[in-house]
Amino acid sequence: MKQTITTLLIFLSAFCATADNTVTISMITTAQGRQIYELEGHAAMRITVGDSIDYVINWGLFDFSAPNFVGRFVSGETDYMCGAVPTDYFLYCYKKEGRTVYEQKLDIPQDVARKILDLVNKNLTPPNNVYRYNYIKNNCATQPMAIIEKALGQKLMYQDYMPEISTYRQAMDYYHRNYPWYQFGIDIALGCGIDHQISPREKVFAPTMLTHLLSSATYTFDGKQKKIVSTTVIYGDENADITCSPTPWRQSPMCVAIAILILAAIVTVYDLRRKVVSLWMDTVIYVPVILCSLLLTFLIFKSTHEATSPNFNYLWLSPVSIAILPLMWINKSKMLAVSPILLNFVCLIAYLIVISIGIQTANPAFIPIVIALLLRSYTYLYIARWQRKNKN
Questions:
Q1: C-alpha count within 13 angstroms, C-beta hemisphere, residue 123
Q2: pTM
Q3: DSSP 219
Q4: Sign of the alpha-carbon torsion through 91, 95, 99, 100
Q5: Any idea what DSSP says for residue 233?
Q6: What span, in angstroms and rounded, lies between the C-alpha atoms of 214 and 255?
Q7: What does the pLDDT look like over 41-75, one tens digit per residue?
């Protein structure tokens, strides 16, 4: 009901945009927050008409109570909504959290501002207010920027910001640097599709990056290049950082991965000496691998999320691993798992080749785990070969 009311209010504002009422369009961006979904900030559009209309259009709304929301989110079928709220209400939420808020007023002719208002009104009208969300292609930042460029009838020219960030994965890694386990999960789930070179235009998917890109963006007006915005901080300190403190190294994925590698190396030496496989060690390693393999199988073949396929992590988190552990425990003496372990060993080597030549970027913590898996695979294959020789 609230969604409908605010939508109607903004829709009616089109009739207030007469010659006596100036339409002002601004982009509102907020700094990072503490929650995972706030790590790239947030973007919205502010529209004022004369002295009476002042609303923020938000493309980041979703209905968590919608049927099968979690399942649809995981499979990449999440629908987000566009809605309007009074500016004071919108800003209150971020002031309460202590997050810095930027306003970037568009320096555009009135006819363009009115086109933006018309386009927003159409966007707010059901069913146009619902769109298929995509983390990097279609979100709260890309939606309003598409409307602005459509009204202008041209693409904005951006100067690159942070040129050292040249891929989507590098951008994610930068914003998630204090949340290494979150990035670890992303690096498992997303494949080589987020490792290609991106342009400054593609970097606007991250609202905090959009703030800097807009500050230097230009468009052509009367044959000349003109800056599109003027930037002001309307709340907070632009140097403030309210994100969580960095995860201690001893709690990081890399520390855990190195601990697994050291343990695997010690157990491997012990096993090779006594010519017996320590199944408890393989259980510790392969149970998480099997779970991740099942997740990747779903993401690659079912999910429509960006860059879930192709994903070369499927080499070291191979579905072959699903068969290895049960076969190890079923009959230790017959070494039933030799064939799948040999295939898995080849897949692990192939994965190291793939990341070494740059086809896909690996999370640094993957490497110790892959080496640990290689050690355990080699142990099993070596002991199986020794048992066959002694049996004959």
A1: 22
A2: 0.87
A3: E
A4: positive
A5: E
A6: 39
A7: 999 999 999 888 899 999 988 776 666 655 666 66
